[in-house]
Amino acid sequence: MLFSTMLRHWAFAQRPQQLFSQCRQFNTTRIGMAQAENTSSSSKPAKWTPNSIRTGLIARKRGMTAMWDDHGARVPVTVLQLENCQVTKNIVHVRPDRTEYHAVQLGASDRPKRTTTHQMRGHFRKAHVKPKYIVKEFPITPDAHVPVGTTLSAIHFVPGQYVDVIADSIGKGFQGTMKRWNFKGLRASHGVSVSHRSAGATGQHQDPGRVWPGKKMAGRLGGERTTVQNLPVVRVDTTLDLIFVKGAVPGFDDAQVLVRDAKKKLIGLANANQAKGLYEKVLPKGVDDLPFPAGTKEMVQSLPPVIDAPSKRSSPFIPRE
């Protein structure tokens, strides 16, 4: 028994390089097969599906204006502009439960190199892009990664689709209950002395003898992360990288805002209609497809400079049956 064990150890000592070379060859084969699989999958044209989650965009809020649709109806819109929005990194993180987190990191608004930290200079240098003022990441599905260094365009959002806009609301300082919580206030004439805008009683009786946590009282208003959902895209200007969305957007003028596909009225509704078999209702009316994985500057060359969304209302001048 001892002799056979020694013989095995001796045989292994005589040919370790051969065994290691076989292991190295096996690993190299696996890597080559994975690379070949990635190459074959990347050669196929990517197409948006209801289960796909695309990256968003970083834009600047330029202000509000008004537009008129085909039927003469006035539409208030907010103008958002892209400032050299580029991909700086593709993120893949494996969680402890073996699920994967995929995201695309974007940078926007070029800044001088002298005002950028050395750490961020190296980060932007690695991505072959100019230093940026703002860097944010958007969660995506594994099929929606965008090559690093790609410059995104306003055509990423198609006129007629719905988007969510995320930004910090305008800070209004310390405000009373009437402005902060829409309280009615006290009586304006009889029975009230210099307390017309007061909140009134806030305490309880001896039991519980305290004010409940979360009671609506005076305090700071605004300056919070706010998301406005389901805003329709009315117009896209590919020359100036402008996105016109219907309605108001949080934040002051020239503030940085995050724009993404609407979770409820686009992604959620697409999944629901796909499961029901209503394929003609997967995308909003007038939208045939979405640029996938993203709308880039290269797509702009074959598109008109200004694209308007079709009006969703019927003409008031056409008689109804």
What is the arithmetic mean of pLDDT? 86
Query: Which stretches are low in confidence, meaning pLDDT under 50 for 5 or more residues running?
Result: 16-43
Strand percentage lies at 25-35%
Give the tally of β-strands: 12
Strand order of the largest sheet: 1-2-10-9-6-11
Whole-number radius of gyration?
29 Å
Please state the structural category: alpha+beta
SSE ordering: HHEEEEHEEEHEEEEHHE
Q: What kind of sheet is the major sheet?
A: 6 strands, antiparallel, barrel
Oligomeric state of shown chains: single chain
Distance between the termini: 100 Å
Helix content: 10-25%
Number of helical segments?
6
Would you write up a description of this structure?
- The protein is α+β, with helices and mostly antiparallel strands.
- The chain has helices at residues 2-14, 16-43, 118-127, 177-181, 263-276, 297-300, and strands spanning 57-68, 74-81, 86-94, 100-110, 132-140, 162-168, 173-175, 219-221, 225-237, 242-246, 256-261, 306-308.
- Strands 1-2-10-9-6-11 form a 6-stranded antiparallel beta barrel. Strands 3-4-5 form a 3-stranded antiparallel β-sheet, with helices on one face.
- Strand 9 (225-237) and strand 10 form a beta hairpin.
- The longest helix has 28 residues, at 16-43.
- Mean pLDDT is 86; it is low at 16-43.
